[in-house]
Amino acid sequence: MKLTILGCSGSGPGPDSPASGYLVESGGSRLVLDLGNGTFGALQRFADPFALDGVVLSHLHADHCADFAALTVLRRYHPDPPVDTARHPLPVLAPPDAPQRLAALYAADEPERQRTDLSDVFAFSGLDGGSAAVGAFAVSAVPVEHVCPAWGVRLEAGGRVLAYTGDTGPCPGLVDLARGADVLLSEASWPDFPGAPDGVHLSGRQAAEVATAAGVGRLVLTHVQPWSDASAILREAREQFTGPVQLAEPGAQHEV
């Protein structure tokens, strides 16, 4: 498996990175995990969007799904698409209300939203279904604790495992999500601090605690907010987890 960081800025794009988005490749299959602000442009540097086997959206905050509207425009209006998008709609695994929410994101006003149906170019499935096969990937989802319905995602392909937390506070499902993963791609939005709100985000220390409890091979920290101290997040994670720890960087590629 190969993981490419399209963007890794938390809560919105930063001066040096788009928001959350990741391209994962294995056995000729390509899957996008989240498609936040600015990531669609980055995706086109690494893969033809028409060559994707699927998209997985962990939740529907803009910093994880805003560029889905750009993908919609491409699939609907490209003058010479290399695939028949109507006969081969792109599989999308997302929260159950994604078809309506993403139609509203795409539409300019309420009358257009009422007329908009994205099923001409996308085939939606709910993450609450638990597991699915997308190309070479076995995809499973675990509910996590955030301020809206959200899921962590586990990808298995070619005998390797990538676990992705999405956005979450500490919760029991994270260890099951990450158990034995070769790489844990974990949000770490802020340095640890007393009184951090429950059910919102992880600190670097908390991400590392999950990595340790789950016995993962390597920890990649992402979703660092532009105003957070990335060096402090990395330092506290390395103090807690004895395996390799890295900060995600836009454009970086990781073998899983």
Give the SSE layout:
Blueprint: E1 2-7, E2 21-26, E3 29-35, H1 39-46, E4 54-56, H2 62-65, H3 68-77, E5 90-94, H4 98-106, H5 110-115, E6 122-126, E7 131-134, E8 137-144, E9 150-157, E10 160-164, H6 173-178, E11 183-187, H7 204-214, E12 218-222, H8 230-240, E13 245-247, E14 253-255
Parallel strand pairs: 3-4, 4-5, 5-6, 10-11, 11-12, 12-13
Antiparallel strand pairs: 1-2, 1-14, 2-3, 7-8, 8-9, 9-10
Written account of the structure:
Helix 3 packs across helix 4 and helix 7 (204-214) packs parallel to helix 8 (230-240). The strands form two sheets. A seven-stranded mixed β-sheet has the order 6-5-4-3-2-1-14. Strands 7-8-9-10-11-12-13 form a seven-stranded mixed β-sheet. It has helices at 39-46, 62-65, 68-77, 98-106, 110-115, 173-178, 204-214, 230-240, and strands at 2-7, 21-26, 29-35, 54-56, 90-94, 122-126, 131-134, 137-144, 150-157, 160-164, 183-187, 218-222, 245-247, 253-255. The protein has one domain (2-255): Metallo-beta-lactamase, Chain A. The protein has 256 residues and is α/β, with parallel strands linked by helices. It is built from eight helices and 14 strands. The mean pLDDT is 95.
Summarize, please.
This protein is 25% helix and 29% strand.
Q: Helix segment count?
A: 8
What's the end-to-end separation, in Å? 5 Å
Q: Largest sheet at a glance?
A: 7 strands, mixed
**Beta-strand percent range:** 25-35%
What general form does the structure show?
globular
Counting helices, strands and paired strands, the structural category is alpha/beta
Low-confidence stretches: none
CATH superfamily label: Ribonuclease Z/Hydroxyacylglutathione hydrolase-like
C-alpha-based Rg, rounded: 17 Å
Number of domains: 1
- How many beta-strand runs? 14
**Order of strands across the biggest sheet?**
6-5-4-3-2-1-14
> Which CATH C-level class is it?
Alpha Beta
What series of H and E elements makes up the topology? EEEHEHHEHHEEEEEHEHEHEE
CATH topology: Metallo-beta-lactamase, Chain A
Please state the oligomeric state of the protein chains shown: single chain
Helix content: 25-40%
CATH architecture: 4-Layer Sandwich
- Average pLDDT over all residues: 95
